[in-house]
Amino acid sequence: MGWVVDEEALERLAIGAGILGTGGGGNPYLGKLMARQFVREGARIAVVGAEEVPDDALVVSVGGMGSPTVSVERPRRADESVRAMRALERHLGRQFTHLAPSEIGGSNSTVPMVVAAQTGLPVIDGDGMGRAFPELQMETYAIDGVRPTPGALSNHHGHVVLFDRIDDATTLERYARAVTIQMGGAAGYAFPVMSGTELKRSVIRGTLSLAIRLGGTILAARERHEDVIAAALGVTGGRRLFTGKVVDVERRLLGGFARGKVTIEGLGADEGRTVAIDFQNENLIARTADGEVLAVVPDLICLVDAETAEPVTTELVRYGLRVAVLGIPAPAALRTETALRVIGPAAFGYGDVEYRALPGVYGKGQPTSRGARP
Amino acid sequence: MGWVVDEEALERLAIGAGILGTGGGGNPYLGKLMARQFVREGARIAVVGAEEVPDDALVVSVGGMGSPTVSVERPRRADESVRAMRALERHLGRQFTHLAPSEIGGSNSTVPMVVAAQTGLPVIDGDGMGRAFPELQMETYAIDGVRPTPGALSNHHGHVVLFDRIDDATTLERYARAVTIQMGGAAGYAFPVMSGTELKRSVIRGTLSLAIRLGGTILAARERHEDVIAAALGVTGGRRLFTGKVVDVERRLLGGFARGKVTIEGLGADEGRTVAIDFQNENLIARTADGEVLAVVPDLICLVDAETAEPVTTELVRYGLRVAVLGIPAPAALRTETALRVIGPAAFGYGDVEYRALPGVYGKGQPTSRGARP
Questions:
Q1: Between the CA of residue A99 and those of A58, A187, A189, B65, B160, what are the distances in Å?
Q2: A interface mutation test: which of B179, B181, B183, B189 has the most A CBs within 10 A?
C-alpha cells in the first residue's frame, strides 16, 4: 500500500522536517527544490511502509554529511548520494531495492527523495532518528546493531571513498567526517546497508508521513488564521515550553559542528523569565536562568517563529526573533536505556543532567506503524 | 632473471634505505625485523627487474603511511599493507601479479618485502621516488600520470577504506592522510594500481639493488676499517658537503609531519663554518650561515654518522652527534621540468631558491636498468 510524494507533499515535508530537525540537520529547502525539479520532469517518488518491505530486501540508508553552515553556502549537487549509492552497489556486486531515510529532521529528510527521484527506488516511511542528530552512531540502525559498513561517501567531484570491515559506527563517523572535511565540508553518503529484516527491527516507523502531515497542518492553520503552534503540537505531541524574544546568540564552528547557545527573554505569560538553549548543530538542552531543565536531548527542542511556526534553525536564529520553544517527546526507541547511553544528556557532555522524559507520545496524532498516506 | 632477498640482503637494505631516506621516510628497522622473521620461517622474497614485468601485469604499489615519530612508538603490524592489498583485489575482482615499492628511502623500502613474504608476489627492483618524500603526489607514478585510484588503506584493526574515481594524487594524499590520522597515525596502503606498461614507463629502475649494495658496501668498509663515507659515495655518486657536530635541533609535529631544522658546526676542514638543514620528514635544503645553498630538494641531503656512515634520521638526530652531510644527485626522473614542479624547492615553500643540480649521477656505481643481483 504505497503512496507518492508529490510537489505538495515536498512543500509540507520541508516545513515538518525543519521542525523535527530541532534546530539542526541542515536546511531541507535545497533538497526540496531538487526533488521538486525531478518531480516536475516526471519522476515518481514512491513511499512504502516498513511492514511492506520483504525480509530479503537490500536496503540502504542515504543522506548528506557536513556542516549545515557550509551546506547553506554551497548546495550539494543533486547526485552526490546517488553516486555514493552506485559506488556501493558496484562494490557489493548487488543492487539496492529500497531507500531508508537516516534522519527525518533537516536536510536529510529530502536527500532520499532526491535519490528516489533519480533511481526509481521506493523510500521507506520511517528513519533512524525520528529527529536530527549530529553523528552516525546516533541512528537506531547503529544502536540496534546493524553493521555500519560497507558504506560509501561521494562529493561534487564524483570522488568515491568506500568504508569496509569497520564494526562500530563511532569509528565510521570519525573516518567519514575527516574525509568529508577534506572533500570541502559536504558529501553524500550511502550507509548502512540492511536486510529488510534488519530494517524492520530498527526503523522508527511513520516519520516521513508524520513530517509531511506536520507541515501540511501548519500550512492549513496559517491559511485559516488558527493557532499554528497548537496545530503543530496536535500532530507531534508535546507542549509549548516557552515564548519570547531572542536576545543573544553565540555560535562557532568547531570540529565540523556548529556549536553555541541561544538566549531568549520571555514575552506574554513568560515575561520576566529567561531561557538558554545549548546547541551542537541540534538543540540539546533548554534551561531557565535558575537552572531548571525544561527539556533535554533526546527529547526534541524546537524553535519556531511564534506567529507562523516556521522552523528557526541554529544557523539562522538571530537577535530579535520572536520564537516559541516547543518540547516534543522523543520516539520510544530513543528513550531505552541502550539508546540513552548514545543519545542521552551524558553523550553530549551533560553528565550531571538526568534524563526525564517529557510527558506525551511522539507523533500522537497519527497511526505511525503502517506508513499510511499522510 | 630474478633474485632473492635473503637475511643478509635485508640487513644491507635497512642501512642503504636509511641513507636514501634523506632523514625521513620512517625507520626501516622494524620492517627489516618483520621481513626477516618471515624469511626465517621459509618465506621467499623474489625480486624481478622492471624489464621482466609483462605489459599486461597487474602491479600495485604498497607501503605505510603515517608520521615517522608515531611509527617508532607503535610499530605497524606486519599485515596492514597486505590487508589493504587484499581489499583492493576484492574490490577490483582481480589479483595482483607484482609489487612495486613506492619509496626506497626509509621504512617503505621494507614494507614491500613484508608483503612479498606473505603473498609470494615478486617485488620489482625499482621505486617511485629513488629516495623518500612526504606525499603521494611526489611519486614518479603520479608525476607520469598513473591514475592514483582505485586504492586502499587498512590499519591494525583491519578497517578498510577504499578510494576510487579520484584523478589527482594530491587529493588522494589529503583524503588518505586524514583517514590515517583518524586510524591512529599509521596505516598500510595499496595504491596506485598499474599495468606492466605503465610501471615500465614510470618506475625508477634498480633502486632496490642500489640500496642493498649501498648497505653492503658500508658494512664491508666498516669491517675493513676503510673510509665508510667514501665507500658509500662510491655507490651512490655525489659528494661530502660538510662534516661537523650537531649543535641545535628544532623539531615539531605539524599536520602529521615532523618539521624542523638541524644546525651543524663544522669540524676539521669545515671548522669555523655552520650549516643549517631544514626538514619536513625529509631533509629539504642545506645552507651555510651566509645563505649559500649547498644542496636542495630533490637532490638527496643525507646525514650519516661521521665514523660509521650509519644513517641519522630527523627523528633521532640530537645534540652532539658528529655527522657527515652527503649530497647525492637525484635520479634523472626527478629533475625534469615536470617533476620539479611537484618536488622542486618551490613545492616545499622555497620559492626563492632556484634548483641547481648537484654534479654527478645517481647510483653511478651500478647498472641500474636491469635489476641485477646486487
A1: 9, 18, 12, 36, 24
A2: B179
User: Is B206:B363 a contact under the CB 8 Å cutoff?
Assistant: yes
Using an 8 Å CB-CB cutoff, list chain A residues near B178.
178-179, 181-182
Q: Is B178 on the interface with A (CB under 8 A)?
A: yes
Looking up cell 650519516 gives B304
> B166 touching A, CB under 8 A?
yes
Q: Nine-digit cell at B172? A: 588522494
Q: What is the C-alpha separation between B194 and B119, in angstroms, rounded?
A: 18
DSSP conformational letter for B311: B
Classified as helix, coil or strand, A245 is strand
Q: Any CB–CB contact under 8 A between B40 and chain A?
A: no
Lay out the sheet containing B239-254: strands in order across: B293-296, B282-288, B274-280, B257-266, B239-254, B322-328, B300-305
Inter-chain CB proximity B175 and A160 less than 8 Å: no
| Beta strands B46-48 and B123-124, pairing class | parallel
Q: Give dist(CA B172, CA B155) in Å, integer.
A: 17
Closest Cβ–Cβ partner in A91, A158, A182 for B178: A182
A238-348 fold: CV3147-like (2.40.390)
- Could you tell me which of A288, A55, A347, A157 has the C-alpha nearest to residue B168? A157
End-to-end CA distance of chain B: 13
In the CATH scheme, what is the code of domain A3-205?
Answer: 3.40.1610.10
User: Does the beta-carbon distance from A165 to B91 stay under 8 Å?
Assistant: no
B179:A183 CB<8 A: no
Q: Is B55 helix (H, G, I), strand (E, B) or coil?
A: coil
Rg (Cα) of chain A, in Å, rounded?
19
| Per-residue pLDDT at A368 | 45
Domains of chain A by residue range: 3-205, 238-348
**Does B184 touch chain A if contact means CB atoms closer than 8 Å?**
no
A43 contact B CB<8A: no
Q: What angle do CA B254, B256, B257 make, to 5 degrees?
A: 65
Identify the architecture of domain B237-348 in CATH. Answer: Beta Barrel (2.40)
> Considering Cα of A296, then A297, then A298, then A302, what sign does the dihedral take?
positive
A-B Cβ pairs (cutoff 8 Å, strict): 62
**Which chain A positions have a beta carbon within 8 Å of B180's beta carbon?**
none
ipTM of this predicted structure:
0.88
Contact A164 B166 (CB under 8 A): no
Distance CA A55, CA A190 (A): 20
Note the pLDDT tens digit of each residue in B105-135: 999 999 999 999 999 999 999 999 999 999 9
Neighbouring C-alpha atoms within 13 Å toward the C-beta of B46:
12
B179 in A contact zone (CB under 8 Å): yes
Q: Is the pTM of this model over 0.95?
A: no
Q: What is the pLDDT of residue B368?
A: 45
